[in-house]
Write a structure and sequence with these properties.
The complex is a heterodimer of chains A (327) and B (505).
Chain A (H helix, E strand, L loop, with lengths): L1 H17 L12 E4 L6 H15 L8 E4 L6 H10 L6 E6 H8 L11 E17 L7 H10 L5 E4 L6 H12 L9 E4 L3 H9 L5 E5 H9 L3 E6 L25 E9 L4 H16 L1 H10 L9 H20 L5
Parallel strand pairs in A: 1-2, 1-3, 5-6, 5-7
Antiparallel strand pairs in A: 3-9, 4-7, 4-8, 4-9
Helix pairs in contact in A: 4-11
Chain B lengths: L2 H12 L2 H19 L5 H14 L4 H26 L10 H44 L7 H13 L9 H15 L2 E3 L4 E3 L13 H20 L17 H23 L5 H16 L11 H24 L5 H12 L8 H4 L1 H22 L3 H7 L4 H20 L2 H19 L5 H23 L11 H33 L3
Antiparallel strand pairs in B: 1-2
Helix pairs in contact in B: 1-14, 2-3, 2-4, 2-14, 3-4, 3-8, 3-12, 3-16, 4-5, 4-11, 4-12, 4-14, 5-9, 5-11, 5-14, 6-18, 6-19, 7-18, 8-16, 8-17, 9-10, 9-11, 10-11, 12-18, 16-17
Classes of the chains: A alpha/beta (327), B mainly alpha (505).
Chain lengths: 327, 505
């Protein structure tokens, strides 16, 4: 009797923690697809969350990580939609870049509503920076320059034309009341490091990137961050950096990290994974991972994330249309 | 980071059991690759790329394995040159001239030992040269803007044909083919896909690892399938593997001179190890051949080119690591590997990833020690391995290629693309079109175009921005000299080499 009571208590506790209907989904042979080569952000998301899922006892066996590079994530997206649409044990790492490319139609014939968006595990916020000795002192100075003499300010970023680093500049410019954003000179580099080199070498006047790419250069005193595109100031040693919002430019640029799942995933499994990712995010373990890797708080789950992705997607599509990237 | 702390970091990084084991493995495989006629160092490295990726090695470990193979191939090439008068790879061609006569005179063991020592001297001194010269070059980092980079890439292509190319037109064709292939994928400056035919797999362009493994490794397999077995003649008796002190004393000068000129030849973009060994031999003949003994088994004629080609191998790493411009075919393959590992070679590499650079340098010193050990007492073993028929080797090459590429992308499309490149490589080899310019084109084409467009974008379409800085002017000058120079000097050099080889025996 005692034994069965204990088992009932345990089952009850588990059900409460996971908030799934009784007798529901039981994960097995879980796989996480990182849509890029080993070493990048998506690979990191899969591996770290996979490890956390197991250490927290949410899944029993290790999560298998598969790298599927190609098409900026498009190969994996198409694969999930066409070949694994009903898989209840499949997670795919995603980020703002995934939504950007979907919104711009870069994943041929694929749309954001073909998959189910699960949850996020943090974000990297955008920054706009200049060299330490630049005459541009505030975000206001930069926006003024972009408005009156855009041909004199080249802004370097680590993504392609129309990519996230470019869009962040445009979002800020829009918020600052600049009507014609097509005049803004964006210089595309292969990555944040190359773009930063161009800034330090004096080949461009400003830099658009993420806070994680900039931290080392802030500490070395080589750059001045004009604004971080976060809702409020960042914690710790980054608290000195003003937000765009407090300078009167209401722009947020969050490069979030999280997961989507196959569109045909059962409601039970979807509910399970939404709660599982939420639980990972809230764990002590994950707070440590975030601190180590420079991830900032950003938490949206299930329906909230679905709605956010729809909105972000619409915003990006509108901006991309304006700069002539899509019709 | 100053030199000493850099080196210390490097040794701390390199001396883990895994890294040392990989260095030893790389040295053994590299020596074998070098020794087997037909398998050159670029093929050897290309074949082992997928192996490194399927083992899931990190950046430093992958680099250590592959550069050990590279250095090993430089050591190994001499074995079949000396014993069989068949060069194991192109840089070992000059070693035949005096190495094979020594072997026929019953001094095979001595020739092998001496050339092993010469390789060691060349390899170690060149690595030291790399340590001194590379950070110096890297300090120019921030001077390179888009215009300077564009000039640098033009320079790399201009000197590509180099002195060793047989047919500059074929090299030019190959480079154009590579540049054309580089256009596939979305264009970073406008964000619009080009030549992707609606295939999402081509959105990021052609994966150069797929191209490299197809062009180099698979085409090798196809050639083998077509031509069948090529049994090597029996190498004969080695004699004692030992260098007499008097011979060593006599050859010491040749080793140092060979090292110096070989290193310089290596540092020049596009020239590479074949030129290094050739110039080393020519210089030594000019300096030392008073009694007309060169070509008849003079030990100095063995020591100079062997020191030269190993020094050139080290020298070729300098422009590859500091400027992102490969100095030889093999370093082009290594560059592709670096880029696939998300490491951007170039001026900032020393600041951003010091552990990679210095770990590599430390591993190179270690690899030279291992190679010395492998090539003096154990050289007999490699002579035996020469007799392993390719019918066992080639299926292994095919298997490693497929497994490795599949491990990277998990996508059958890449495997089909690799087979396509294999067929292309096979056809091009039969037409004697060099493959390295194709790889360079795919590798550098995007960067070259992007930098040109960045420069023009920043300057509002003013083309004079391309030669506004003194650095850019300097790079353009070298590019022009590098393009036209070989057309004037090249034929003469090649005639000299051909005459030397004909006149033998």
């Amino acid at each position: 009797m005692l034994w069965s009571t204990r088992r009932m208590l345990l089952a009850g506790a588990l059900a409460a923690v996971l908030a799934t209907p009784a007798g529901a989904f039981e994960p097995s042979g879980v796989e996480c697809i990182a849509p890029a080569n080993p070493g990048g952000g998506w690979d990191f998301t899969c591996r770290q969350v996979g490890r956390a899922l197991q250490e927290l006892g949410i899944v029993k066996e290790p999560v298998r990580v598969t790298n599927m590079a190609g098409g900026g994530g498009g190969v994996a997206f198409a694969y999930v939609v066409t070949k694994r649409n009903k898989d209840d044990n499949l997670l795919v790492a995603a980020s703002t870049a995934t939504v950007t490319r979907l919104a711009q139609g870069a994943y041929v014939d694929m749309r954001a509503d073909m998959v189910r968006w699960i949850g996020t595990v943090g974000a990297d916020y955008g920054v706009i920076a200049v060299a330490a000795d630049s005459p541009i002192k505030t975000l206001g100075d930069l926006m003024e320059a972009l408005k009156t003499r855009p041909q004199e300010v080249a802004i370097a970023g680590g993504s392609a034309f129309g990519g996230w680093d470019h869009l962040k500049v445009l979002i800020a410019a829009k918020a600052a009341g600049i009507e014609d954003v097509t005049k803004i000179k964006y210089v595309a580099y292969k990555g944040g490091g190359e773009a930063m080199t161009a800034l330090l070498g004096g080949h461009v006047q400003a830099f658009s990137g993420d806070i994680s790419e900039t931290v080392g250069f802030i500490e070395a005193g080589q750059v001045r961050v004009l604004a971080v595109l976060a809702p409020e100031r960042l914690p710790g040693k980054l608290a000195d950096i003003p937000t765009a919002r407090e300078q009167g430019v209401d722009a947020i640029g969050a490069n979030w990290r999280g997961f989507y799942a196959p569109g045909g995933m059962s409601d039970e499994a979807y509910g399970f994974w939404v709660e599982a990712i939420r639980q990972v995010y809230q764990s002590e373990l994950w707070q440590q991972v975030m601190a180590q890797s420079g991830l900032m708080p950003f938490a949206l789950y299930g329906q909230e994330l679905e709605a956010f992705v729809r909105q972000q997607s619409a915003d990006i599509a509108a901006l991309s249309r304006e700069i002539g990237l899509i019709k | 980071m100053d030199l000493l702390t850099g080196l210390l970091t490097g040794f701390a990084t390199a001396f883990t059991p895994l890294h040392l084991a990989l260095a030893i493995l790389g040295c053994v495989l590299g020596t074998l690759v070098g020794a087997l006629p037909g398998l050159g160092p670029s093929n050897g490295v290309a074949i082992l790329v997928p192996l490194a990726f399927s083992l899931g090695l990190d950046a430093t470990a992958t680099l250590i394995l592959l550069t050990s193979v590279y250095y090993g191939a430089m050591y190994g090439g001499r074995i079949s040159s000396i014993l069989l008068a068949i060069p194991g790879d192109e840089p070992a061609l000059m070693t035949i001239l005096d190495g094979h006569p020594m072997a026929r005179a019953g001094r095979a063991g001595e020739a092998l030992a001496l050339s092993g020592l010469a390789s060691f001297v060349g390899g170690v001194l060149a690595t030291a040269g790399l340590v001194l010269l590379a950070p110096l070059l890297a300090r120019f980092a921030l001077l390179f803007g888009p215009a300077e980079y564009f000039a640098l890439y033009v320079l790399a292509f201009a000197t590509l044909g180099g002195l060793a190319a047989r047919n500059p037109m074929k090299a030019l064709f190959a480079a154009a083919l590579g540049l054309a292939l580089a256009l596939v994928g979305y264009d970073t400056t406008t964000g619009i896909p080009r030549y992707t035919f609606g295939l999402v797999e081509l959105y990021e362009g052609i994966d150069f690892l797929v191209a490299i493994v197809g062009l180099f490794a698979l085409s090798e397999v196809f050639l083998f399938v077509e031509k069948g077995l090529r049994e090597l003649p029996h190498p004969g008796r080695l004699g004692r593997i030992f260098v007499r002190l008097s011979t060593l004393r006599q050859s010491l000068g040749a080793m140092f001179r060979g090292t110096g000129i070989g290193f310089l030849a290596g540092v020049l973009p596009g020239a590479g190890a074949s030129l290094g060994s050739f110039l080393a031999y020519m210089l030594e003949k000019r300096v030392s051949d008073r009694a007309g003994t060169f070509g008849r088994g003079d030990p100095r004629g063995v020591a100079a080119p062997e020191a030269g080609n190993n020094a050139a191998a080290g020298g070729a790493l300098v422009p590859m690591l500091t400027l992102g411009v490969p100095g030889s075919g093999t370093t082009a393959v290594l560059l592709a590997v670096l880029m696939a590992l998300d490491i951007t070679p170039g001026p900032l590499l020393f600041e951003q990833r010091p552990e990679v650079v210095w770990g590599l340098v430390a591993a190179l010193f270690f690899a030279n020690l291992v190679l010395l050990a492998l090539n003096l007492p154990l050289v007999g073993l490699f002579v035996q391995l020469l007799r392993v028929p390719p019918r066992y080797l080639m299926p292994l090459v095919a298997m490693v290629s497929f497994v490795g590429i599949h491990a990277i992308s998990n996508n059958p499309f890449d495997l089909q693309l690799m087979i396509g490149f294999g067929v292309l490589g096979w056809v091009l080899r039969k037409l004697e079109v060099p493959l390295v310019p194709i790889i360079l084109g795919i590798l550098l084409g995007n960067e070259m175009e992007d930098n040109l467009r960045r420069a023009l974008l920043i300057a509002d379409g003013d083309w004079t921005v391309l030669w506004r800085s003194p650095l850019a002017v300097g790079l353009w000058t070298v590019a022009v000299l590098g393009f036209f120079g070989p057309m004037l000097v090249g034929p003469w050099l090649r005639r000299r080499r051909a005459r030397l080889l004909e006149g033998r025996g």
